[in-house]
Design a protein that fits this description.
alpha/beta, Transcription Regulator spoIIAA, 5-stranded mixed β-sheet
Length: about 120
């Protein structure tokens, strides 16, 4: 697996931090198992709030974003789940648009504090 990751139970939400190098042509193969495991933890902990921090080098392609989101139900992404996606230095609004158009609750942020404010409704 090209990525390192850590999943943490923060009581009010689950936090996953994913780091590594994006390798062209491997976006789905590398990220989907991590999303699947993270979403399993969300179900086990009975939480519908997820903070995802992406510290990935390289660019996410529009095709990669599209494929990851359109496959989301296959790896357990429930439409009740709220996802705050933090990817500093990247403009990942395309992913947000795809997700929202498919009925998912996902919002992209540049920093963790803004993401938590939205996720926790503070």
């Amino acid at each position: 697996m090209a990525y390192d990751y850590k999943i943490e139970d923060k009581q009010q939400y689950i936090r996953v931090e994913i780091s590594g190098e994006r390798i062209p042509g491997r976006a789905i193969k590398d990220i989907v198992p991590i999303w699947a495991e993270t979403l399993t933890v969300c179900r086990e902990k009975k939480t519908n709030k997820l903070l995802a921090i992406l510290k990935l080098t390289g660019e996410v392609t529009k095709t990669g974003s599209y494929n990851i989101v359109t496959l989301a139900d296959r790896y357990g992404w429930d439409r009740q789940l709220q996802v705050a996606l933090v990817e500093p230095e990247k403009n990942n609004l395309f992913t947000e648009t795809i997700a929202v158009n498919r009925g998912y609750q996902l919002k992209v942020f540049a920093n963790e504090q803004d993401a938590l404010t939205w996720l926790l409704g503070e």
